[in-house]
Write a structure and sequence with these properties.
binds flavin-adenine dinucleotide; five-stranded antiparallel β-sheet; globular; 14 strands; alpha+beta
Length: 289
Protein backbone atom coordinates (compact mmCIF):
# COMPACT_ATOMS: atom_id res chain seq x y z
CA UNK A 1 0.00 0.00 0.00
CA UNK A 2 3.01 2.30 -0.28
CA UNK A 3 3.74 3.88 -3.68
CA UNK A 4 7.15 3.57 -5.27
CA UNK A 5 9.19 6.71 -4.59
CA UNK A 6 8.80 9.50 -7.12
CA UNK A 7 9.86 13.07 -7.71
CA UNK A 8 7.11 15.61 -7.11
CA UNK A 9 6.88 18.52 -9.58
CA UNK A 10 4.47 21.42 -9.29
CA UNK A 11 4.42 23.65 -12.40
CA UNK A 12 2.87 27.13 -12.20
CA UNK A 13 1.77 27.44 -15.82
CA UNK A 14 0.40 25.15 -18.52
CA UNK A 15 3.50 25.68 -20.67
CA UNK A 16 5.79 24.76 -17.76
CA UNK A 17 3.71 21.61 -17.21
CA UNK A 18 4.01 20.68 -20.89
CA UNK A 19 7.79 21.18 -20.79
CA UNK A 20 8.07 18.88 -17.76
CA UNK A 21 5.87 16.23 -19.38
CA UNK A 22 7.93 16.46 -22.55
CA UNK A 23 11.20 16.17 -20.63
CA UNK A 24 10.23 13.12 -18.56
CA UNK A 25 8.11 11.32 -21.18
CA UNK A 26 6.50 8.06 -20.08
CA UNK A 27 8.15 8.25 -16.66
CA UNK A 28 5.85 11.18 -15.76
CA UNK A 29 2.18 11.21 -14.78
CA UNK A 30 -0.20 14.13 -14.38
CA UNK A 31 -1.84 14.42 -10.96
CA UNK A 32 -5.26 16.08 -10.70
CA UNK A 33 -7.63 14.98 -7.92
CA UNK A 34 -5.55 11.84 -7.34
CA UNK A 35 -8.66 9.73 -6.71
CA UNK A 36 -7.78 7.21 -9.41
CA UNK A 37 -4.03 7.69 -9.74
CA UNK A 38 -3.06 7.48 -6.05
CA UNK A 39 -4.92 4.18 -5.43
CA UNK A 40 -3.20 2.72 -8.52
CA UNK A 41 0.18 3.92 -7.25
CA UNK A 42 -0.46 2.44 -3.82
CA UNK A 43 -0.95 -1.03 -5.28
CA UNK A 44 1.89 -0.32 -7.71
CA UNK A 45 -0.18 -0.77 -10.83
CA UNK A 46 1.14 2.72 -11.68
CA UNK A 47 4.79 3.48 -10.92
CA UNK A 48 5.55 6.96 -12.22
CA UNK A 49 9.01 8.33 -11.48
CA UNK A 50 7.74 11.91 -11.76
CA UNK A 51 4.41 13.33 -10.64
CA UNK A 52 3.41 16.54 -12.39
CA UNK A 53 0.84 18.07 -10.05
CA UNK A 54 -1.35 20.42 -12.12
CA UNK A 55 -3.61 21.48 -9.23
CA UNK A 56 -2.02 24.93 -8.98
CA UNK A 57 -2.31 25.78 -12.67
CA UNK A 58 -4.37 28.96 -12.96
CA UNK A 59 -7.62 29.25 -14.91
CA UNK A 60 -8.53 25.57 -15.21
CA UNK A 61 -11.37 25.60 -12.67
CA UNK A 62 -14.59 27.11 -14.07
CA UNK A 63 -18.10 26.37 -15.31
CA UNK A 64 -19.39 28.96 -17.77
CA UNK A 65 -21.39 29.46 -20.94
CA UNK A 66 -19.43 31.14 -23.71
CA UNK A 67 -19.53 31.25 -27.52
CA UNK A 68 -22.32 28.65 -27.78
CA UNK A 69 -20.74 26.15 -25.37
CA UNK A 70 -20.91 25.18 -21.74
CA UNK A 71 -17.21 25.18 -20.84
CA UNK A 72 -15.93 23.18 -17.89
CA UNK A 73 -12.31 23.66 -16.84
CA UNK A 74 -10.46 20.36 -16.41
CA UNK A 75 -9.71 21.00 -12.72
CA UNK A 76 -13.37 21.57 -11.81
CA UNK A 77 -14.23 19.25 -8.89
CA UNK A 78 -17.32 17.05 -8.86
CA UNK A 79 -18.52 18.97 -5.79
CA UNK A 80 -18.40 22.21 -7.80
CA UNK A 81 -20.66 20.72 -10.47
CA UNK A 82 -23.11 19.73 -7.74
CA UNK A 83 -23.09 23.25 -6.30
CA UNK A 84 -23.34 25.08 -9.64
CA UNK A 85 -26.60 27.00 -10.21
CA UNK A 86 -25.95 26.95 -13.97
CA UNK A 87 -25.61 23.15 -14.00
CA UNK A 88 -28.68 22.74 -11.78
CA UNK A 89 -30.82 25.00 -13.97
CA UNK A 90 -29.74 24.00 -17.47
CA UNK A 91 -27.76 20.74 -17.41
CA UNK A 92 -29.61 18.29 -15.14
CA UNK A 93 -27.93 15.30 -16.78
CA UNK A 94 -24.57 16.58 -15.51
CA UNK A 95 -25.96 17.14 -12.03
CA UNK A 96 -27.46 13.60 -12.00
CA UNK A 97 -24.05 12.24 -12.98
CA UNK A 98 -21.91 14.19 -10.51
CA UNK A 99 -24.20 13.28 -7.61
CA UNK A 100 -23.86 9.57 -8.34
CA UNK A 101 -20.05 9.51 -8.45
CA UNK A 102 -18.42 7.85 -5.44
CA UNK A 103 -19.04 9.71 -2.15
CA UNK A 104 -18.74 13.34 -0.99
CA UNK A 105 -15.11 12.93 0.13
CA UNK A 106 -14.04 11.68 -3.30
CA UNK A 107 -16.18 14.32 -5.04
CA UNK A 108 -14.44 17.12 -3.14
CA UNK A 109 -11.15 16.17 -4.82
CA UNK A 110 -11.98 14.33 -8.07
CA UNK A 111 -11.92 16.47 -11.22
CA UNK A 112 -14.01 16.24 -14.37
CA UNK A 113 -10.85 16.31 -16.48
CA UNK A 114 -9.35 13.42 -14.51
CA UNK A 115 -12.54 11.41 -14.77
CA UNK A 116 -12.41 11.60 -18.59
CA UNK A 117 -8.61 11.40 -19.02
CA UNK A 118 -8.44 8.21 -16.94
CA UNK A 119 -10.33 6.37 -19.72
CA UNK A 120 -12.07 4.01 -17.32
CA UNK A 121 -15.26 2.58 -18.91
CA UNK A 122 -16.70 2.36 -15.37
CA UNK A 123 -16.43 6.13 -14.81
CA UNK A 124 -19.68 8.04 -15.12
CA UNK A 125 -18.86 11.27 -16.98
CA UNK A 126 -17.87 9.61 -20.28
CA UNK A 127 -21.42 8.35 -21.01
CA UNK A 128 -22.89 11.73 -20.15
CA UNK A 129 -20.41 13.57 -22.35
CA UNK A 130 -21.18 11.14 -25.20
CA UNK A 131 -24.89 11.90 -24.81
CA UNK A 132 -24.22 15.65 -24.79
CA UNK A 133 -21.91 15.54 -27.84
CA UNK A 134 -19.04 17.19 -25.96
CA UNK A 135 -15.55 17.87 -27.22
CA UNK A 136 -12.33 17.59 -25.29
CA UNK A 137 -9.72 20.33 -25.45
CA UNK A 138 -6.12 19.15 -25.13
CA UNK A 139 -2.96 21.25 -25.03
CA UNK A 140 0.49 19.93 -25.83
CA UNK A 141 3.78 20.97 -27.39
CA UNK A 142 2.07 21.46 -30.76
CA UNK A 143 -0.62 23.74 -29.32
CA UNK A 144 -4.31 23.18 -28.68
CA UNK A 145 -6.70 20.77 -30.36
CA UNK A 146 -10.33 19.77 -29.87
CA UNK A 147 -11.20 16.06 -29.91
CA UNK A 148 -14.84 15.00 -30.46
CA UNK A 149 -15.87 12.85 -27.51
CA UNK A 150 -16.85 9.93 -29.77
CA UNK A 151 -13.19 9.76 -30.90
CA UNK A 152 -11.71 10.18 -27.42
CA UNK A 153 -11.98 6.70 -25.82
CA UNK A 154 -9.77 4.22 -27.67
CA UNK A 155 -9.58 1.15 -25.39
CA UNK A 156 -9.62 0.33 -21.67
CA UNK A 157 -7.74 3.14 -19.86
CA UNK A 158 -6.56 4.54 -23.20
CA UNK A 159 -7.72 7.83 -24.69
CA UNK A 160 -6.79 9.94 -27.69
CA UNK A 161 -4.62 12.16 -25.47
CA UNK A 162 -1.04 11.98 -26.67
CA UNK A 163 2.02 11.70 -24.44
CA UNK A 164 2.62 15.12 -22.91
CA UNK A 165 -0.87 16.50 -23.63
CA UNK A 166 -3.00 18.00 -20.87
CA UNK A 167 -6.77 17.90 -21.00
CA UNK A 168 -7.69 21.51 -20.24
CA UNK A 169 -11.38 21.92 -20.99
CA UNK A 170 -14.61 20.11 -21.79
CA UNK A 171 -16.93 21.92 -24.24
CA UNK A 172 -20.59 21.05 -24.52
CA UNK A 173 -22.77 22.66 -27.21
CA UNK A 174 -25.51 24.63 -25.43
CA UNK A 175 -28.68 22.61 -26.09
CA UNK A 176 -31.54 24.44 -27.84
CA UNK A 177 -34.86 25.02 -26.07
CA UNK A 178 -36.97 21.87 -25.85
CA UNK A 179 -33.96 19.87 -24.59
CA UNK A 180 -33.62 17.68 -21.53
CA UNK A 181 -31.37 14.96 -20.22
CA UNK A 182 -31.00 12.42 -17.42
CA UNK A 183 -28.48 9.90 -16.07
CA UNK A 184 -29.48 6.66 -14.36
CA UNK A 185 -27.00 4.36 -12.65
CA UNK A 186 -27.43 0.96 -11.06
CA UNK A 187 -24.88 0.40 -8.28
CA UNK A 188 -24.54 -2.38 -5.72
CA UNK A 189 -24.29 0.15 -2.91
CA UNK A 190 -23.94 3.91 -2.60
CA UNK A 191 -20.48 5.01 -3.76
CA UNK A 192 -19.83 1.98 -5.96
CA UNK A 193 -18.90 2.09 -9.62
CA UNK A 194 -21.80 1.41 -11.99
CA UNK A 195 -23.08 -2.08 -12.70
CA UNK A 196 -24.70 -0.24 -15.61
CA UNK A 197 -25.23 3.48 -16.26
CA UNK A 198 -27.19 5.22 -19.02
CA UNK A 199 -27.15 8.91 -19.99
CA UNK A 200 -29.75 10.35 -22.35
CA UNK A 201 -30.15 13.82 -23.83
CA UNK A 202 -32.98 14.71 -26.24
CA UNK A 203 -34.35 17.74 -28.03
CA UNK A 204 -38.04 17.67 -28.95
CA UNK A 205 -40.07 20.22 -30.91
CA UNK A 206 -43.50 21.66 -30.10
CA UNK A 207 -45.21 18.73 -31.85
CA UNK A 208 -43.32 16.22 -29.67
CA UNK A 209 -41.01 15.11 -32.48
CA UNK A 210 -37.44 14.22 -31.51
CA UNK A 211 -34.89 16.42 -33.30
CA UNK A 212 -31.74 15.31 -31.51
CA UNK A 213 -30.90 12.33 -29.31
CA UNK A 214 -27.73 11.33 -27.49
CA UNK A 215 -27.35 8.10 -25.50
CA UNK A 216 -24.19 6.99 -23.65
CA UNK A 217 -23.64 3.73 -21.75
CA UNK A 218 -21.38 3.19 -18.72
CA UNK A 219 -19.46 -0.01 -17.88
CA UNK A 220 -20.96 -2.33 -20.48
CA UNK A 221 -17.98 -2.63 -22.79
CA UNK A 222 -14.23 -2.00 -23.00
CA UNK A 223 -14.93 1.70 -23.64
CA UNK A 224 -17.89 3.97 -22.86
CA UNK A 225 -20.44 3.26 -25.60
CA UNK A 226 -22.36 5.73 -27.75
CA UNK A 227 -25.60 3.89 -28.59
CA UNK A 228 -25.75 5.18 -32.16
CA UNK A 229 -28.52 2.94 -33.52
CA UNK A 230 -30.73 3.74 -30.55
CA UNK A 231 -30.11 7.48 -31.04
CA UNK A 232 -30.86 7.33 -34.76
CA UNK A 233 -34.05 5.34 -34.20
CA UNK A 234 -35.51 8.35 -32.35
CA UNK A 235 -34.75 11.11 -34.85
CA UNK A 236 -37.82 12.61 -36.59
CA UNK A 237 -40.09 10.30 -34.58
CA UNK A 238 -42.69 11.15 -32.01
CA UNK A 239 -40.96 10.47 -28.70
CA UNK A 240 -43.65 8.18 -27.30
CA UNK A 241 -43.29 5.14 -25.05
CA UNK A 242 -43.24 2.74 -27.98
CA UNK A 243 -40.35 4.61 -29.60
CA UNK A 244 -38.50 4.73 -26.28
CA UNK A 245 -38.91 0.95 -25.85
CA UNK A 246 -37.50 0.33 -29.33
CA UNK A 247 -34.51 2.57 -28.60
CA UNK A 248 -33.93 0.76 -25.30
CA UNK A 249 -33.81 -2.60 -27.13
CA UNK A 250 -31.27 -1.22 -29.61
CA UNK A 251 -29.11 0.22 -26.82
CA UNK A 252 -29.03 -3.21 -25.15
CA UNK A 253 -28.08 -4.83 -28.48
CA UNK A 254 -25.22 -2.33 -28.89
CA UNK A 255 -23.77 -2.91 -25.42
CA UNK A 256 -21.08 -5.55 -24.80
CA UNK A 257 -21.19 -6.33 -21.07
CA UNK A 258 -19.16 -9.13 -19.54
CA UNK A 259 -20.05 -11.24 -16.53
CA UNK A 260 -18.23 -10.24 -13.34
CA UNK A 261 -18.79 -9.66 -9.63
CA UNK A 262 -21.44 -7.07 -10.47
CA UNK A 263 -23.59 -9.64 -12.28
CA UNK A 264 -23.93 -11.86 -15.33
CA UNK A 265 -23.86 -10.29 -18.80
CA UNK A 266 -27.51 -11.21 -19.41
CA UNK A 267 -28.62 -9.31 -16.32
CA UNK A 268 -26.61 -6.26 -17.41
CA UNK A 269 -28.24 -6.33 -20.86
CA UNK A 270 -31.65 -6.28 -19.19
CA UNK A 271 -30.48 -3.37 -17.03
CA UNK A 272 -29.25 -1.40 -20.08
CA UNK A 273 -32.74 -1.83 -21.57
CA UNK A 274 -34.47 -0.73 -18.37
CA UNK A 275 -32.20 2.20 -17.55
CA UNK A 276 -32.36 3.47 -21.15
CA UNK A 277 -36.15 3.55 -20.87
CA UNK A 278 -35.93 5.43 -17.59
CA UNK A 279 -33.30 7.89 -18.79
CA UNK A 280 -35.20 8.68 -22.02
CA UNK A 281 -38.50 9.03 -20.17
CA UNK A 282 -36.98 11.44 -17.63
CA UNK A 283 -35.15 13.33 -20.43
CA UNK A 284 -38.48 13.71 -22.27
CA UNK A 285 -40.17 15.05 -19.12
CA UNK A 286 -37.40 17.58 -18.62
CA UNK A 287 -37.42 18.61 -22.29
CA UNK A 288 -41.15 19.31 -22.05
CA UNK A 289 -40.82 21.35 -18.88
C1 LIG B 1 -13.69 5.14 -3.56
C2 LIG B 1 -13.79 5.68 -4.96
C3 LIG B 1 -14.98 5.52 -5.64
C4 LIG B 1 -15.12 6.03 -6.93
N1 LIG B 1 -16.32 5.88 -7.57
C5 LIG B 1 -16.49 6.44 -8.78
C6 LIG B 1 -17.75 6.37 -9.44
O1 LIG B 1 -18.75 5.86 -8.93
N2 LIG B 1 -17.85 6.94 -10.68
C7 LIG B 1 -16.80 7.59 -11.29
O2 LIG B 1 -16.96 8.10 -12.37
N3 LIG B 1 -15.60 7.65 -10.67
C8 LIG B 1 -15.43 7.12 -9.45
N4 LIG B 1 -14.20 7.18 -8.85
C9 LIG B 1 -13.07 7.77 -9.57
C10 LIG B 1 -12.97 9.26 -9.32
O3 LIG B 1 -14.10 9.93 -9.85
C11 LIG B 1 -11.68 9.72 -9.94
O4 LIG B 1 -11.21 10.77 -9.23
C12 LIG B 1 -11.65 10.18 -11.35
O5 LIG B 1 -11.95 9.11 -12.17
C13 LIG B 1 -10.26 10.72 -11.73
O6 LIG B 1 -10.20 12.07 -11.46
P1 LIG B 1 -8.99 12.68 -10.64
O7 LIG B 1 -9.09 14.16 -10.78
O8 LIG B 1 -8.97 12.14 -9.26
O9 LIG B 1 -7.75 12.19 -11.50
P2 LIG B 1 -6.34 11.57 -11.06
O10 LIG B 1 -6.52 10.40 -10.18
O11 LIG B 1 -5.45 12.65 -10.57
O12 LIG B 1 -5.81 11.09 -12.50
C14 LIG B 1 -6.39 10.00 -13.16
C15 LIG B 1 -5.65 9.74 -14.47
O13 LIG B 1 -5.90 10.77 -15.42
C16 LIG B 1 -4.69 11.50 -15.75
N5 LIG B 1 -5.08 12.91 -15.74
C17 LIG B 1 -5.71 13.56 -14.72
N6 LIG B 1 -6.00 14.81 -15.07
C18 LIG B 1 -5.54 14.97 -16.33
C19 LIG B 1 -5.55 16.07 -17.26
N7 LIG B 1 -6.12 17.24 -16.94
N8 LIG B 1 -4.99 15.89 -18.47
C20 LIG B 1 -4.44 14.69 -18.81
N9 LIG B 1 -4.40 13.61 -17.98
C21 LIG B 1 -4.94 13.76 -16.76
C22 LIG B 1 -3.69 11.14 -14.66
O14 LIG B 1 -2.36 11.20 -15.13
C23 LIG B 1 -4.11 9.72 -14.32
O15 LIG B 1 -3.59 8.81 -15.27
C24 LIG B 1 -14.02 6.69 -7.55
C25 LIG B 1 -12.82 6.85 -6.86
C26 LIG B 1 -12.70 6.36 -5.58
C27 LIG B 1 -11.40 6.56 -4.84
Amino acid sequence: MIPQSFEYLRPKTVSEAITLLEKHGEAAKILSGGQSLIPLMKVRLARPEYIVDINRLPDLQYIKEESGFLKIGALTREAELEASELVRAKYPVILDTARLIADPQVRNMATVGGNLAHGDPANDHPATMLALGAEIVAVGKNGERAIPINEFFLSVFTTALEQGEILTEIRIPIPPSGSGGAYFKLERKVGDFATVGVAAQVTIDAAGVCRRAGIGLTNVGPIPIKAIRAEQSLIAKNLDDNQINQAANLAAEDSQPSSDLRGPAKYKLAMVRELTKRALTRARERARS
